[in-house]
């Protein structure tokens, strides 16, 4: 059994030289992690050269974001085809930081479809900003899922990863409780089944938000998830190596 571990480097590091050093450390750590498939999402500007210089087999590469259009007058954007040409086989879609900058549910719907058309695996991020006891966040997540998964066929569900990321946990050191994640995983599957029938049962779900070397194993054991999306810990080579090591202990 292999867990998916997405290393979202965000807008780090500040130079290609440092990115190469970080990738080399990530490569070494990934090679000794038998139960993890590592996907690195570097800044797009480093992607092609990192991929070219990478000689291993354990790491795949992802875009942190992409436009749904194939080309045109979209200053500053990159297309999924361009990302693929540079070496990406995955694309993060609807990350909380992109949604905060204006990415809508409708955009995620188009991006998921465009990624699948390019044979790129979409990693669709969903998550609520805050929680209250009334459980209104379930409705919010359902809306995000219904939009993001609207254009799929049931069979395409097997080619998509849902990253559940409660925004209130992102950037900290403490995840949500694995028990609450378990509840959310059941809800996500139920929503996928509602939309696409029994195939929804097998949808891949990962957790993101303050995943660290200290809490990764427990989340994987008890959270009912297929892996983790890791932000700030993934750009600290030592901590990321410890996180991958910790995952070995979760198996
Ligand atoms: C994220 O931003 O997707 C994320 C999971 O970040 P962090 O691990 O830093 O909470």
UniProtKB/TrEMBL annotation:
Pathway: Carbohydrate degradation; glycolysis; D-glyceraldehyde 3-phosphate from glycerone phosphate: step 1/1; Carbohydrate biosynthesis; gluconeogenesis. Transmembrane segments: none annotated. GO terms for cellular component: cytosol. Its EC number is 5.3.1.1. It is found in: Cytoplasm. It is an enzyme of class 5 (isomerase). CDD domains: TIM. Gene3D superfamilies: Aldolase class I. It catalyses: D-glyceraldehyde 3-phosphate = dihydroxyacetone phosphate. GO terms for molecular function: triose-phosphate isomerase activity. Its main location: cytoplasm. It comes from the Bacteria. The keyword DNA-binding does not apply. Keywords: Cytoplasm, Gluconeogenesis, Glycolysis, Isomerase. One of its GO terms (biological process) is glyceraldehyde-3-phosphate biosynthetic process. Homodimer. Belongs to the triosephosphate isomerase family. This is Triosephosphate isomerase. It comes from Candidatus Kaiserbacteria bacterium RIFCSPHIGHO2_01_FULL_54_36.
